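Class, carefully examine what follows:
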Amino acid sequence: MANDLHTVFDETLYPYINKGLDGVVAFSTTKSSIDGQNGELIYTGYNIDVLAEKSTFEEVCFLLWNDRLPTQNELDDLTHKFQARRDIPKVVLDYLHSVDKESKPMSVLRTATSMLSETDIHLPDDSYYEKAINITAKLPTIIAAFSRLRSGKEIVQPKITGSTAFNFLYMLNGEEPGIQAEKTLDLCLILHAEHGMNASTFTCRTVGGTLSDLYSAITAAIGTLKGPLHGGANTAVMQMLMELEEQGKDANAVAFTKDKLAKKEKIMGFGHRVYKTFDPRARHLQKMAQSLSEETGHEELYRWSMDMLNTMKSEKNIDPNVDFFSATVYFSMGIQPDLYTCIFTMSRIAGWAGHYMEQMEHNRLVRPRALYVGEKNMDYAPIEER
């Protein structure tokens, strides 16, 4: 049987296949707009540069779930609900204690998120907003708890005060973070909160389109984000930088990059399916990476990153994406590389939930077609004759 589609069908008689759904518009949305040519990202009307400078993650959650910025009373109400719902149920705690401590954090988070659905059985099926709050409040607790348990440390109970960023760092490290650390993580959460019809968001809306519950949609989205070609790229970037670290602080990142290119190895953190220029989120992360690496004594990470950036630009004319500098930012904050995608998840829950709610407003089952290219009406041979 031929695998070459061109030998099986006449392209003039069949629809064109957009590999990876390139250019296919499946939904309309008010959640975000991406101008890949000019490097512009909009969340529900607001430029990401404005939100990065003036907003908070909690405010961005409200924006993506309500299509407008909150009043002070509305923001206070949402913040208090986040703070009050951070505890995770016993069934999830028992799971975190019992799971193999060598398990991948994203696998653990995916399963634990699915288990959370049993805690909301008292809520009506259409309580999307309240369920979104519950998931957003509890995911940081799950991530921090597993991180500590696998290191042989006691779980730090969440506070009922402070921002999502503050509380996560407190639970993760066992001490209250400084203002700068909280501000840095909050900015990271804002920058990762939403990004159009990417693979995980498409998955979330597809699951929602079946009228399955929000927990199922978010769990499926987490499974999608887990892939190294999607959310796992920033972990791969850090692993690449750690390869350089093994060569010492004087390692030559230019030669390292050119060698990988010569071997046709993928340089993670560069290029984007949408952006044809510098990812606007990466610019904010670049500034943070520089300041944090200097503050924490990891100047070489930023130097290597810039050498790689310049080499990729001169050799391939490719710009970095959001994952490239986020690796240095998280590492400088003392966060383990295999937790990077989990933090991405903490943030992207805002966008996923917003898209789920939007899908429910004008739902239609997602049902694309597939072009069959196999044989037809073959003779059935008895098993003894095969």
Remarks:
- The chain is about 55% helix and 5% strand.
- Residues 30 and 44 are 6 Å apart (CA to CA).
- Strands lie at 32-35, 40-43, 46-47.
- Residues 233-332 form a domain with the Cytochrome p450-Terp; domain 2 fold (CATH 1.10.230.10).
